[in-house]
Hints:
Low-confidence stretches: none
Helix content: 25-40%
Strand order of the largest sheet: 6-7-8-3-9-10
Radius of gyration: 18 Å
Order of helices and strands: EEEHEEHEHHHEHEHEEHH
Number of strands: 10
Shape: globular
Mean pLDDT: 92
Strand content: 15-25%
Number of helices: 9
Structural class: alpha/beta
Amino acid sequence: MVSNVMSSDKKIIEIRDVVTKFGENLVHDGINLHVNEGEIYGLLGPSGCGKSVLMREMIMLENFHSGSIELLGHKIESIQSRAAQQLRMQWGVLFQSNALFTSLTVAENIALALQEYTKLSPEIINDIVAFKIDIVGLKQSDGNLYPSQISGGMKKKAALARALVMDPKVLFLDEPTSGLDPISAREFDTLIVKLRDLLNLSVVMVSHDLTSINNTLDRMGVIDNKKIVAQGTLEEVKTIKSPFIERFFEMEH
Length: 253
């Protein structure tokens, strides 16, 4: 378990009584959780329980039926469009698919948000892109390559560099080690912890990778039967009597 001296009891995300419906299908039935500043927080649960849906609700890509989500002091269910746009600048997202533009080089993918949302000169943008390429562990020459020319692990790092390019306060990761071989997955775990400490990030991560859960998470929330059935450290969650939790962590042995 990774502990971070920078984490605090200040809540940067608070979710209260969130209900999510798709037509007649009830996905979340009163979700309650909070994420503290500076921690790596995991969303766990069986397939189809709505982990990624909840993350998409946090970043305003999905609407919820009722309840409240407060992120960095803003209640997103009532936020105005200008404030919403400013809030989006304060988080970065690494999607499971990486979502890199295939027609752009790695460096061009990373630079995109800076070109669209800032008035920085091309020279400064190039310097920022070079720095982001470096901190995720890519070589500068990798920036000239297209996504089709790099490995799965390099694509993850490129997408991570893009997610970090606006210096976000919160980083959202959806199944970040999905599709990686075990060695690349463990390297990515180490990188996430290093970047959290280096950049004083708060991280929210959807995962079902047991090794990642053990290596990276400070706390976690477990969704099952449409609710949070456990929230806390790994040790605390393991003490909860839940069929899913017991089955999930049995796989360690």
